[in-house]
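Backbones bend. To wit:
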Amino acid sequence: MDEISINISIADRPYRLTISREEEERLRKAVLIINDRIKAYAKNYAYKDRQDLLAMVALQYATSSLLFESEVAFRDNHLTEKLNGIDQLLSTHFKQ
């Protein structure tokens, strides 16, 4: 695996990470999204310190992740049911 060291900043705090080269673009995009969310919360809500903003961003993404997982599970189940139905129809049709 081709690893690189990069420097990022989240909520004005620097971090040095070692990641695979393939992850770099996605990670930098994630950092931009997180920092944009922090700025939006700072602009629209009262807060004591950056920890409050980070907590709200984490909550937002955890909630979104759970919703996404639920939707994927529903689609997988729905798709499996449909495929089983098609399989039964095909099996019945070709047995005759």
